[in-house]
Amino acid sequence: MLASLSAVADNHNIMRVGGSAESIYDSRITDVEILFTVLFNEMFKDHNEEFRIKIYDTDQALTRELAAGNLDAVFMDTVLYLDNFEHLHPEIAFAVQHGQSIKPKYILLVRRNSGIDSLHELQNKKIIIPSGHAVGKRFLDVELMHAGLPVSNDHFSEIRQTKESNTAIIKLFFNQVDAALVTDFSYEVASELNLQIPQSLEIIETSPPFIHMVISVRKDFPRHRIDKIFPYLENLEEIPRLQYLRKSFRFQGLHRISTDEVYDVRQLSDKYVRLRSEREIP
User: Any idea what DSSP says for residue 38?
Assistant: First the structure.
């Protein structure tokens, strides 16, 4: 367990930031720890602030530590962020951008020669979904239920997991699975690197654009520290090492958002709950 939130070490205020291995998008845990440590400590090295990052094994462990008051800030997939909104500051949220937009689309891929062109034809097939794709999986579950089908955990014979989207695409390409759920920009990158991929794979479902990851602080985080820290997060272009981080980690930046900008994900989750409850009515 992390130490007291009021801890100060070597005359530095310590900001304890938590994430979950289940919510990390397209990265290894070590890479994420390096990314956030370099980014934040580079920004605030002259401002008496020190960031310490801990990646928990599960979303459950992360939310437990947040609820217990043992974390100052978190980065979460948007579904998890909304589930824990009561513990977080309602006015402080940043979308994490990978690719060209803060709102990627999720796409469901199959092989062109598979003869599969609908969700019905994927019943009892194998799908691969990278970590950090909770919003995409929520979209897929809603589409399945709209089609009168079970949710993904019951519809597919197997849901394989991987840390990286490119791995998911390659496994589909080599016929190791029947479908892959990835973001549009991950597919675009893979297609640019290997022209055979778009020739061999096709999209059968596309989601609306959604914010996929959010950074926020606990609801009682001191206002004076917010006023000192967060203007820097809104001006990442001034950080000298940002280009290095973009190249090494496919990290494009952070964008201040309002709760209205994740309202579409809340609607998606509400629809998911409603459809599931309707199925349980005898």
Answer: H
